[in-house]
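Entry 14. Ran structure prediction on the chain below.
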Amino acid sequence: MPKNTNYTAKIPDDQGLIDYSAEEHAVWRDLYAQQIPSTQKYAADAYLKGLDLLDMSANRIPQCLELTEHLMPLTGWSVAPVPALIGFGRFFNMLAEKTFPAASFIRSRADYDYIEEPDIFHEIFGHTPLLTDPGFAHFSNTIGNIGQQVEPADYSWLIRLYWFTIEFGLTVENGHYKALGSGLTSSPTELIYSIDSPVPERREFNVIDILRTPYRIDIHQPIYFVLENIDDLFQAADRDLLADIRQAQSLGLFEPSYECQLTG
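Output, structure tokens:
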């Protein structure tokens, strides 16, 4: 994750609500209108079903309390506003508590097409639809539980499994690639790139390989891992991930395959 940010967290009031400006709501409205046609074409069915279930506003930034009201009856998850950047330790703790941390600010017009750090559009439009699904919710909770068991030096190994699935995972539906990851579904450009571009490598889902694959946050991904069957991800939650991390560490990281990609 980025180590600093130009954004300031929005602080909820005593009722847990955040007061966004008209311009901030307008950025949400425009991003939402832009992404809906793309997600309908490129996103996986599990994401689209979750988006329908949440029924979030197209014209204003949803409040975390609204998302919690939808998620609690479905999977027992809540959504809580956090500062722009939190450490891996706090991130894992919140997932273990079935609380999704949502950065409370929204990007400016200057960062409209690409923002390095996660904003509330990424968090809510990208992440929360998958949390309506018990399988994806359990996987995220498992990542949090394992994160509480590993040493801080191992955080970067574990987070790769989250990065290449929940953030940037692909799947196959009816013979076509579809986007699962929130980093894709919330991106104006990388969603299309991940499916249509001949540039990135699309690898078969493999837990050990994922744990060994370096990534960068500031470029379109040069590698995507593809779930032929989404159940493979759910079964990964039942693996001995601590042993997987130790095996990956014994094998070492793969050589980076970063290329100069257009960010977005």
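The chain is about 45% helix and 10% strand. Will compare against last week's run tomorrow.
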